[in-house]
Structures
1.
Amino acid sequence: MKQQPGNTRNDDRQVAAVRDLLHAYATRGVLREFEERSMRNSKTEYQFTWLLDRRFHLIFDPGASQLTLRDLLPGIPTNSPLDLAVREFVAARTSKQLLAHRRIDPAKATLTVSHSRSALSFVFTVKRNQYAYAVPKLLNFCNELFAFLDMYHIQYLWEHMGVPEE
Amino acid sequence: MGEIASSHTSLFAMTVFGGMGFQPMRTRRWTPQDKLENRAMSQKRTSKTSETKRVNESRRDFIKTAALGAGFSALAGGAATAAAPDVPGRPIARPKPFEEISAAPVKEFAFPATGGDIFAQVCKEEGLAALFCCPGNYEIVSALANAGIPSYGGRNEGSMCSAADAFIRVTGEVAATSGTEGPGFTNMICAIAAANACRTPLLVLASNMTLRGDDTERGIQRGYQQPMTEGIKKYGKRVVTKERVHEYAGYAFRQLKTGVPGPVHLDFVSEATGRESEIASATDLDAYWGRGQYRTDSRPHPDPKDIDRALDLIKQAKRPLIVASTGVFYSKAWDALKAFAEKAQIPVAESGPMRGHFSDAHALSASAAPNAMFSVDLAILVGQYCMPGLGEYPFDINCKYIRIDPNAGDIGRNIPIDIGIVSCEKAALEALAAKSPAMNHDAWIAEVAAAREAFEKENDEHYALGKSYTDAVHPAVISTELANFLYKGKLAPEQTTIASGGFGIGRYTRRRLRAFRPGQICNGAYQYGSIGPDVGYTLGVGVAKDLGIGAQKPYQGGPVIGITGDAGFAYSAFEIETMAKYKIPGIVIVYNNNAWGTWSGYSRMPRAGHMHLFQENLRYDKIAEALGGYGEYVTSPDGFTPALERCWQIAVNERKPSVINCQAKKEFWIQRDFPPGMLGKVEPGVMAYNH
Ligand SMILES: Cc1ncc(C[n+]2csc(CCOP(=O)(O)OP(=O)(O)O)c2C)c(N)n1
Ligand SMILES: [Mg+2]
């Protein structure tokens, strides 16, 4: 990828690191139709098809060390029961009761939820460039989030995520 | 699946039917003692309260009674009389022919013979375990029945096809279904498709008029059948030449008994198998050679190098999981699986259209541990014929995969593999067990155990919620109390075989039902997801248990349980009558929420919502009674267990099927009003039915 105006060399290195990590999953066939697109403010968007055959939009902001899964869950009004349930689920990911391989370690990355136009985005703020830790964690978080929705909020998946009612 | 499969060797050890071992049902002689016992049992049934009391027998007494019931072969006659008549003098009763079948002679095969008889003879030599049909395809079904193959006539070809599918899925043995040309055959399509998703070695038979009249539209019911099963069979053939009937029977069994199984569809024109199809002697047939010549029981064994590579990968894994699926069951690899899992200390989760090939009671069982699935870093998929896509099993993103499958052509489909092993599942597991060093995965096993505990706790919470809804029967009440009755009461937990179906209710009952031995659970319509076959499945499971075939042999006799929704019940409900007339004691639990389970998504659409609704408070229990069965209508949570106990007692004592009509309400699927609402699933494991 060409260097964009305003990009620092450090940004480039980080973008490359994230790309390499994601690309390894794409090469293996885990993530499909992998695409990368430069955005303004030295951000990069990675797009790929993954769970439930949906298109994922992962925005990387190297300046803020943030990986954002943009508009991952549409159709969830603020403070609706599902909004609260998802937030509770997210908060529980850092619980000390979780085993290390399942926990998001706040010393390495934090996860927050943001809301816009009834869609939930998930923001991973990565500490000290620990992308090798953060990228698989983020993907595993998605895995668990989608399974959580399937297990307890299947109606939502039917109505908003294109899952067939069978 | 449409093309002819490569000729992998047999997965089917001929344990039950080997040589002359097969005894068709009804060969057991009646003794006067049987009659006395039976009469005594039929007199036992009095009021509902006294029946409830009788359930409180000791387990030993119960098992004795159940086994005694099993001894009365379905058609042996003399069993307890039918339901109390609604109209005096007109009882619902089995006519005399049902009492006479056991005494009727089995026809010995001899030339000259018709194509139908020749076909039946191959089926008999191959140990075809049962036939489920409706009238039609007369030459073939008569020949099969006359040859002594246990045969059942039902009310709808589709449901009977489902019965055959379920029978195979809990026995591991090949069975047939049959229907008449045109309509009988096309009624079976949905059920064949479900069997295909399940990879069931199902022999689908149908007549097909005459070759001579092809394309004329003379008479009725002419048509080409094979294109209609395109994509839903392993192999198919229209048999048109009487000299080649034997040869094509060989084609059929080669496909049914080797490699990855699947439905085989044969249709017969009258020239090949009808009355005019007589063949004078064996030398007039093409390719007339025996089972040992037209197919082999040899199975592909793994390359030792692949086993070494697999073990190297396993040694590197922290949290490996064996996913034991369809092929483990059909290759009868449960002992090898257990040996390998124990030696390498690897947890096992089941998937597939049947359950029980790895006991849920085993300390290494991960089937009821959904929260552990996300941690898996190496998945060993054994006999996973119906493959998930990546992400459908929510293992760690860095998870590696080993696949063990007899069909090299499938390894690498859907999920990128790290190691593929082309082998019969049993042979591969035996090799792994033999070569594996003792390993230690204590931390991982503890994680699985904690996940199991958390899952049970969550189920208990659902039950507490369910019981708090007192004006209707919540699915958590049904699933929990059914499980308590089957596994925590007086029954031996491994005794009862279950047709675990239903849509919304299935999402609750799967969480609670457990399998402790091979073939204990037939997993509904599985990946095909059809609503409706459940009563057919219950019949098939009930017949398998009654005859004690294959994996059901050690548990022969006694009641079986079926689970369905109110929408599902309607499709195959009339097979209650089939169960009643053959004295198959299936207890069908109907979750009656007055609606198709899809209603909740359309409840706010006034012009569309009604399509998902039924009349309320329908009496499915009365349908059972009208068909010669027994019915219970349960309207509050405290009524479920007593009703189940009464049905059980009647099943044991009178061998009568029953329906427990559980009055629920459609709003139970709306989470905000009635938590936990409609549930989903995590696969693999007890909840799995997509794969
Ligand atoms: C033959 C068939 N028709 C339609 C569907 C689509 N479908 C899936 S679930 C469902 C509702 C099933 O209702 P019911 O069995 O009563 O389940 P419950 O109300 O307990 O959820 C429908 C229509 C299907 N899977 N199969
Ligand atoms: Mg319903």
2.
Amino acid sequence: MKSCKEVHRLVIEGQDRKLGFTERFSLRVHLMLCAACRRFDAQMDLLRQALRRFPGD
Amino acid sequence: MTDPDLQQSLQQMRPTLLRFAMLQLRNEAAAEDVVQETLLAALEGKSSFSGRSQLKTWAVSILRNKIVDHLRRGSREGSLPQVDEQGDEDFDALFDGTGHWQEAPGDWGDPAKVLEQRGFYEVLELCMKALPENLARVFTMREVLGFETEEICKELKMSSSNCWVVLYRARMRLRECLQLRWFGAR
Ligand SMILES: [Zn+2]
């Protein structure tokens, strides 16, 4: 299994490039099992949603 | 909206538009220019608006296009400093020797609620301003202006790997800043 360090990198790169099949697979497996990385993934998701709505109201 | 209403609404929007432009262009004169062009385009536009928020969405979208044009012109003149691809040590410190989080990421809560919270966007803007210019340029093109990554690399004549590194660092820094100034401070 990939480490959290490798996975946080995949989470971020996944926002800017299309991940390969193996990358997506190992990412999903890790996220299923690791709450810390799930929260990290959610943080990146929030960041993206916030910026898409920039400059806010 | 009547003409005087429109003019007044646009005038009130001006500071917001200017801040938005400054964030991406980092140059006061250039930001003034694109905002001026946007306001003119809005006044000359034949579109009709039922209200302020619709007008704002429209003005921001014109402004985005003006900023994109400006950035394209700028990149042809070649002005973006390249980043050093080495040296991720600052983020390596987030993990221990076996690749586990030193400190597990916090729960930021429901995005829909967070984004409605008063003051959130001020803090986000503060954090964007704190990014070094080369990171901010690439990152706002990607996230605020909605470019595809390959398009950015091409426009700015950067290698793909350089692009990934820049975007990675920008996201990590913003995360750190928001954690410190917003989520950790509540
Ligand atoms: Zn993990």
